[in-house]
Amino acid sequence: MQNMKNLQVLDLGENELSGILPDWIGNELSNLRILRLQSNNLEGRIPTGNQLQILNDPSSFEGNSGLCGKPLLKTCPDDKSPDGNKSSGGHEAGEESYFSWFFAGIGPGFAVGFSAVCGILTFKKSWRYAYFQFMENVYKRLWLSITLKTSKLRRKFSRCI
Predict the structure, then answer these.
(1) What pTM was estimated for this model as a whole?
(2) CB atoms < 10 A from the CB of 155, how many?
(3) Is there a contact between 26 and 50 (Cβ–Cβ < 8 Å)?
(4) Do residue 8 and residue 66 come from a single domain?
């Protein structure tokens, strides 16, 4: 495997190869620029290694009726959940992991931020007074604004009646 790291072109088309594509094709061949595997008897999921994300030409895999996955339009049987929907939710596998990490971090991030604000307001008396004074001013302005608008509406409707 060490000797193949600098390999740039791999043309194994029309060789009557059969079996499953190994994962090392996408992971170990980091300089691979052209991959041709058309017209063989390959089957299974096309590996999703780092390099194969760049090589997204579906014609490289044509003639292998058993292959599935990106970049081909044919989805693999295990891409579907028991209810028949795609398990990835319409996102690519790598993109899905970013979404799951994002949503997994929302709860703890909110908890840490909220506890930091509450902790500061608990221990810093001057900040606590300033915060509650600000909130009281906001409340008064909202109350005044709502009161003025409702009184204007009452006068307007009283003229109409």
Answers:
(1) 0.42
(2) 9
(3) yes
(4) yes
Q: 62: domain CATH number?
A: 3.80.10.10
Interatomic CA distance for residues 63 and 61, integer angstroms: 7
DSSP state letters, 7-49:
--EEE-TTS--EEEPPTHHHHT-TT--EEE--SSEEEEEPP--
User: Residue ranges of the alpha helices (H) in 28-124?
Assistant: 50-54, 93-123
If asked whether residues 85 and 103 sit together in one domain, one would say yes
Is pLDDT above 80 for 145? yes
What are φ and ψ of residue 40, in 5° steps?
-125, -170
Mean pLDDT of the chain: 79
Range(s) of the domain holding residue 63: 2-79
- Do residues 65 and 53 share a domain? yes
Neighbours of 25 (CB within 10 A): 19
Pair (23, 67) in one structural domain: yes
